[in-house]
Amino acid sequence: MKHVLFTKIKFLGLLAVFFCAMSWAHLADAKVGKATGLPIPRFVSLASDEVNMRHGPGKSFPIAWVYRVENLPVQVIDEWVHWRKIRDLDNIEGWVH
Questions:
Q1: Nearby residues of 35 by Cβ (< 8 Å), 6 or more positions away
Q2: Residue 24 gets which letter from DSSP?
Q3: What SS3 class is residue 9?
Q4: What is the DSSP string of 34-93?
Q5: In the chain, at which end, N or C, are there fewer CB atoms within 10 A of the end residue's CB?
Q6: pLDDT beyond 90 at 4
């Protein structure tokens, strides 16, 4: 009986170590934005009822889309200074400020 109990405890201990290692591996893969220190990717909502999505991170890049919906959910997939590369619900990607 003692041997069975010891084996179960050993198994549960190894299982706990495995799950801890898996969670640490996930944290090591997590990317954070250089500008904000927030996780990338992350979901946010557009704060204005008119947002220009550009082909690159700067006002010199042409406008690809104009969003006219406030609080539209988007995914931030990259950052560069004050610019955020986003992906919308239709998987369209571009840069917003």
A1: 79, 80, 81, 82
A2: H
A3: helix
A4: TTT--EESEEEE-SSS-EEEESSSSTTSPEEEEE--TT-EEEEEEEETTEEEEE-TT--E
A5: N
A6: no
Length of the chain: 97
* Cβ-based neighbours of 77, under 8 Å, separated by 6 or more: 40, 41, 85, 86, 87, 93
- At 34-77, the pLDDT tens digits run 999 999 999 999 999 999 999 999 999 999 999 999 999 999 99
Question: 1 in helix, strand or coil?
Answer: coil
- Torsion angles phi and psi, residue 6, rounded to 5: -65, -40
Query: Tokens 């041997």 map to which residue?
Result: 3
- pLDDT score of 30: 73
